[in-house]
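Contributing: when you submit paired examples, paste them exactly as shown. First protein:
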Amino acid sequence: MKPSEKLYWIKTGLAFVAAILCVVLQIYVNMDGTLVFMLGTLLYLASSDLLSGFFKLDRGHGLKIGVGAYIFIWVMIWTLFYTVFKTMPV
């Protein structure tokens, strides 16, 4: 598997982790949704930079790899879990 493919799949997995983290922070820590959104974006930028260096890819190219998949999965899972946990009876 090429380094760019590995980077793509790692970012896809990190999107799921970031979504779970966002739900936990928003529900249990009572953090504002805007701050949680910025945190998810910061996680993407930091992971892109670190992983691009690790796989020895151009940082500009590494930033573009998997951006669509990350955003789609992150927002979808975040929204789904937030809705499920907020509508559950206590």
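Second protein:
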Amino acid sequence: MNIKDKNIVITGGASGIGKALAERFHAEGAKGITVADVQEGPLKDVATSVNGIAVTCDATSESDIQNVVAKAEEAFGPIDIFVSNAGIARYGWEESSDELWQLNWDLHVMAHVYAARAVVDKMIANGGGYLLNTASAAGLLSQVDSATYAVTKHAAVAFAETMAIRYGDKGIRVSVLCPQQVRTAMTEGHEDNVAAVDGTMEPEELADHVVASMAKEEFLILPHPQVLEYIQRKTGNYDRWLSGMRKLRDLYVK
């Protein structure tokens, strides 16, 4: 899909990946950009910089997502691209509280569900559209220091797959963004994290990869190309891959 003249919504748009995508989409000639986030101050600055609008939004709230869609439609017309990008790094294991598990689930999975509910039928009626969901390389591989993150990011990838299967012949294009470590507020102070084994990418470079992949309408967007090789190793010999992940755990988990 060509970004030029498209109406785009981005959740988690106040900083990091969302901010970089908003700026790059603006440079590509987007017709309208609506940025949504819980961070009101930075959000308004991003919206101003891309001649867009800012809508305060908790992506775990379906009514908030519906409000963002309504505001975007009011300002710029039918939505062409919805970027469901909000996320958190709140790590835990099986013994973590139900509240922590639920928070990860609500933001990393249900936020994508709410976005699809809000826009897919309208996109089909308007002749098509694009869902771009941010997950993580952890959703394809795993996370050696968190079950809450790995499990919900796996679910995010699975949800994107189901959307591509269900609607791919109805004009809906779907991509899932699965980077390793990107330099954002979430990764600040974690430069030696296992996710940085192949380096920490700048958000602006990631945005370049996103635009290139969207132009080709690729399902998997892998800014770190090594991830594809890691997936192939995983599926080629699961037990060997698990052994290797345990070695990474010993190196990186204190």
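If you have annotations for the second protein, write them as plain sentences, like these:
The chain is about 50% helix and 15% strand.
The radius of gyration is 18 Å.
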